[in-house]
């Protein structure tokens, strides 16, 4: 029997709220900033909580102004914005559905109006719905999962590209499930596989423009998506089967996003990093 990692708990809405979790995820950066993103402007989708929140605070500590795109979790988003401001940087909150192309166009327009530039795009928003049988995945669920997890990445990147200059970076959050699959998250894992292909394909298209495109494939990370997706007993065991015998924390993933967003990874494009607790991916 896997060791219990966190108290059993569930939430009845996607993509979940960090304010309702216990214990709270650890999102604060572990180290002082070093100006890695000084003078930069970053957009982070799913920026209200989880990995998105950890990225927002870390990016701010490293000098970036941050636009936080979120679906409806305003309380979480405000907490994240305050954490960004505590790092001395500005946070722009943008509420809406990234699966809506018009909204994505609006996001880019508002960021350019507010900050006058865009340097880093972190596509991170996601939802997932556990189903043990393929036939139980409804057309509505399939469409919604792809619209949030993949179409949103495509729409926002399309809108951002005219404003990205040489040296800009796109970082896409995929998942360990893209590489090993997930019997109970077939549609979610499929979107994450599409994100890997999108990352590799777009990186080749944009290389000559000096715009790098990379990805991060987290393993089991303690975020609101977990109690919002699984039964309480599964939540209690979440992450226990990884080699490190625990789920990861958002601040253990955001450092991968930062590395790919800043010039420290200047010779990397079309690549995916794997903060997953020790699971070997790709041999």
From TrEMBL:
Region described as Disordered: 1-29
CDD domains the record matches: SDR_c1
Signal sequence coordinates: none
GO MF annotation, one: oxidoreductase activity, acting on CH-OH group of donors
Keyword tags: Oxidoreductase
Entry annotated with the keyword Lyase: no
Family classification: Belongs to the short-chain dehydrogenases/reductases (SDR) family.
Protein's name in the database: SDR family oxidoreductase
Source organism of this protein record: Devosia ureilytica
């Amino acid at each position: 029997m896997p060791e219990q990692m966190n108290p059993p708990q569930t939430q009845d809405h996607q993509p979940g709220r960090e304010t309702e979790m216990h214990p709270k995820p650890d999102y604060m950066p572990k180290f002082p900033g070093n100006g890695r993103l000084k003078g930069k402007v970053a957009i982070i989708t799913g920026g209200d909580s989880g990995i998105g929140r950890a990225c927002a605070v870390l990016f701010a500590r490293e000098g970036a102004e941050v636009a936080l795109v979120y679906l409806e979790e305003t309380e979480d988003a405000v907490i994240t914005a305050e954490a960004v401001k505590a790092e001395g940087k500005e946070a722009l909150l943008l509420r809406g559905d990234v699966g809506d192309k018009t909204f994505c166009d609006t996001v880019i327009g508002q960021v350019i109006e507010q900050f006058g530039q865009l340097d880093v795009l972190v596509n991170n928003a996601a939802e997932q719905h556990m189903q043990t049988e393929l036939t139980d995945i409804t057309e509505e669920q399939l469409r919604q999962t792809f619209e949030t997890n993949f179409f949103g990445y495509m729409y926002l990147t399309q809108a951002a590209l005219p404003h990205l200059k040489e040296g800009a970076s796109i970082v896409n959050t995929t998942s360990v499930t893209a590489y090993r699959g997930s019997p109970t998250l077939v549609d979610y894992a499929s979107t994450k596989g599409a994100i890997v292909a999108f990352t590799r394909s777009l990186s080749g298209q944009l290389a000559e423009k000096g715009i790098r495109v990379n990805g991060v494939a987290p393993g089991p990370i303690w975020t609101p998506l977990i109690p919002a997706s699984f039964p309480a007993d599964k939540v209690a065991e979440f992450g226990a089967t990884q080699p490190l015998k625990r789920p990861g924390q958002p601040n253990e993933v955001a450092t991968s996003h930062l590395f790919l967003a800043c010039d420290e990874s200047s010779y990397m494009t079309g690549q995916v990093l794997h903060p997953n607790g020790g699971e070997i991916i790709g041999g």
